[in-house]
Every structure is written in C-alpha cells, then in structure tokens.
Amino acid sequence: MKKLLAVTSSIATDAEWQEMAATLPFVSTQRYNDIMDCLHPQPHGRAPLSAAQRAAQFMPFAALSGYEALVRRTAQEQLDAVTQADTPVDGIEQGWIPA
C-alpha cells in the first residue's frame, strides 16, 4: 500500500502502474450479475433528454455575462484618456489663461 501511495503521489510510468495494478486484489463483479442487464430507470412524467440536450448541461456558461464587454469598454476609455493626455494643447479652448 505504501508503494501505491508513492506511485500515485508522483507521475508514474506505465511500468509502475502495471506493477501497482498487479498487486491490487481483483474484486469480482458477480454480485451485480442480477442488475447488469437491467435498463436504466427513467423519470415518470418527463421525456428523456436527447444527446444534445444532455451534452448542453455540461457546456461552459457565462457566469459573468457582459463582463468581457465591460473590460473592453473600460480598456478603450483608459486608452482614450491616455491619448487625450498625450495630445499637446494650447489651452485656450479649455479655458486656460496663457502666462
């Protein structure tokens, strides 16, 4: 068992995995023979989902909808502010009085 922990705690080679698997006891599945060929239970009053509908349950979703647009808009506003700050002005249009 110590070798099992050592092998699983680091990256193991195929040979190490095979050696570990050879030391593990085989667990028989005979006690499940009575249910092995049974159909999967379906919920009553609800149609089964298609493969596409089942797959859609595991698709990533946008938890923060609109976040990317907000980041782009904020970045553009900052870029515009830097551009405006770097643009030389004479100041008269902004109400500055020349010295």
- Work out the radius of gyration: 33 Å
How far is the first residue's CA from the last residue's CA? 85 Å
Could you tell me the mean pLDDT?
Answer: 79
Order of helices and strands: HHHH
* Structural class computed from helices and strand pairing: mainly alpha
Please, how many helices?
Answer: 4
DSSP strand content: under 5%
Low-confidence stretches: none
According to DSSP, the number of beta strands is: 0
Major beta-sheet overview: none
Based on CA inertia axes, which overall geometry fits?
A: elongated
Helix content: 40-55%
Structure description:
With 99 residues, the protein is mainly alpha-helical. 43% of the residues lie in helices and 0% in strands. The chain has helices at residues 2-8, 14-23, 51-56, 67-86. The radius of gyration is 33 Å and the shape is elongated. The relative contact order is 0.05. The mean pLDDT is 79.
